[in-house]
Design a protein that fits this description.
There is one protein chain. The chain is of the alpha/beta class. It folds into two domains: 108 residues, Aspartate Aminotransferase, domain 1 (Alpha-Beta Complex), CATH 3.90.1150.10; 246 residues, 3-Layer(aba) Sandwich (Aspartate Aminotransferase, domain 2). It is built from twelve helices and 13 strands. Strand 12 and strand 13 form a beta hairpin. The protein is globular. The N and C termini lie far apart (41 Å). The structure holds pyridoxal-5'-phosphate. Pyridoxal-5'-phosphate binds next to helix 3. One of its GO terms (molecular function) is alanine-glyoxylate transaminase activity. Keywords: Aminotransferase, Pyridoxal phosphate, Transferase. It holds the Pfam family Aminotran_5. Belongs to the class-V pyridoxal-phosphate-dependent aminotransferase family.
């Protein structure tokens, strides 16, 4: 057997991520690799930090990209903020809340679960109850945009309750960043992580991360070192803080960081508000077309994510066969249902560069033909 170059097809990615990537981002990726301690690269990293601060709407000096996917951003929050014996209120309304529980337990923490049904947002009243019942809790963790179900939770309200009980917040913003309003400073969120491959439409493998001053204080007051050397952010701090004192921690994923820089420049040029509006507009167009095909949504209108449309698979339709036809005949990827929604729902992503009229039109046309 001879193995040659791998040439992937040109797909249209309308699943839960990775999303369609901006052509400019792919170009940035192929620029010459330079040393990660090269002064020009360090200058690029400083710009990247400012661009991330804009995307997160924060002034937090600790705003970086973890050199690994969104799951590593999640882990970075838990291993740094949770110490053995800490009680963490974990909100679970889909797959990712349950991963948060696993993270808490692996850090030696005690997870107190607040459960909402799949497809529902986190109910702040239940969070308030848990906080009252567990005065020992020091952290509230929740998913802002639950990609497994397409539900958006009220991050501002949950964070306010957490503060009233002197708790920090860990917020999963992997799917929300760049797609729906996320105001880290105004809502006073403490540890927020995201991913490069959802609404930022960058290549997978990086996790934007920001810590508030309160989060940094808790990290600096730790009695035990974080159990992960690579994700110990007290070590990474020196690497990302410029001012001539950058030192080697790990080899930065140089070209991926060019790509993220480019994706964020595109977001800045479009403007965050405009990007949020574009996601809403494309969602409305998709929704009208899907409803005309008799397809219904999993999540109530008030809590629906524009960038992740979870819809019920029509009665009698072969889930896998339709998705295979979309992929083979139209080069179109949509997402399967996950967990409780496996086999019952499809997840149609309109993330970043995928939130365009052509994509919505392709998806509706392809679905209509395949469902006939
Ligand atoms: C995709 C996703 C993750 C994980 O990100 P990876 O880049 O796949 O590791 C975490 N949380 C949510 C809500 C996600 O949608």
């Amino acid at each position: 057997m001879t193995i040659g170059s791998f040439i992937p097809p040109q797909r249209t990615l309308m699943g839960p991520g990775p999303s369609d990537i901006y052509p400019q981002v792919l170009q940035a990726l192929s620029r010459p690799t330079i040393g990660h301690l090269d002064p020009l690269f360090i200058g690029m990293m400083d710009e990247l930090k400012q661009l991330l601060q804009y995307a997160f709407q924060t002034q937090n000096p600790f705003t970086i990209a973890v050199s690994a996917p969104g799951s590593a951003g999640m882990e970075a929050c838990f291993v740094n903020l949770v110490e053995p014996g800490d009680t963490v209120i974990v909100c679970r309304n889909g797959v990712f809340g349950d991963r948060m529980r696993e993270n808490v337990e692996r850090c030696g923490g005690i997870a107190v679960m607040v459960d909402n049904a799949w497809g529902e947002p986190v109910d702040p009243a239940l969070v308030a109850e848990a906080l009252t019942a567990h005065p020992e809790a020091s952290i509230v963790a929740f998913v802002h945009a639950e990609t497994s179900t397409g539900a958006l939770s009220d991050a501002e309200a949950i964070a306010k309750l957490a503060r009233q009980h002197d708790c920090l917040t860990i917020v999963d913003a992997v799917t929300s960043l760049g797609g729906v309003p996320l105001l880290v400073d105004e809502w006073q969120l403490d540890a927020v992580y995201s991913g490069s491959q959802k609404c930022l439409s960058c290549v997978p493998g990086l996790s934007p991360l920001t810590f508030s001053a309160r989060a940094i204080e808790k990290i600096q007051a730790r009695k035990t070192p974080a159990q992960s050397w690579f994700l110990d952010q007290s070590l990474v701090l020196g690497y990302w803080s410029g001012e001539g004192k950058r030192s080697y921690h790990h080899t930065a994923p140089v070209n991926s960081l060019y790509a993220l820089h480019e994706a964020l420049v595109l977001l800045k040029n479009e403007g965050l508000e405009q990007a949020w509006q574009r996601h809403r507009d494309m969602h409305q167009t998709l929704r009208a077309g899907l409803e005309a095909l008799g397809i219904t949504f999993v999540v109530d209108e008030a809590h629906r994510l524009p960038q992740l449309n979870a819809v019920y698979i029509p009665e009698g339709v072969d889930d896998a066969a339709i998705r295979a036809r979309l992929l083979n005949d139209y080069n179109l990827e949509i997402g399967a249902g996950l967990g409780a929604l496996a086999g019952k729902a499809w997840r149609i992503g309109l993330m970043g560069y995928a939130a365009r009229r052509e994509n919505v039109a392709l998806c509706l046309r392809a679905l209509e033909t395949c469902l006939k």
